[in-house]
């Protein structure tokens, strides 16, 4: 597996962790489980960055959508930098 494959896999795993954490909020008591506590430790530091400047719209929190978009942009930036570094070798 190439470095691009490894980086892509890591970003995909983190994206799925965010989706799982978001889905748990839709179920009553979903955030009280041990799995949710584990996901919160991994995902909440990243999501809190966006929650600090994007207020919820009523009952809807759009900050995870913006966080996922930013993660996609970060992933593309990492790939661009890797292409610059590895392409020069």
UniProtKB/TrEMBL annotation:
Assigned GO CC terms: membrane
Keyword Transmembrane attributed: yes
Top-level taxonomic group: Bacteria
Keyword ATP-binding set for record: no
Transmembrane segments: 12-29, 66-86
A Pfam family reported for this protein in Swiss-Prot or TrEMBL: CCB3_YggT
Keywords: Membrane, Transmembrane, Transmembrane helix
Similarity field: Belongs to the YggT family.
Name of the protein in question: YggT family protein
Taxonomic classification: Bacteria, Bacillati, Bacillota, Bacilli, Bacillales
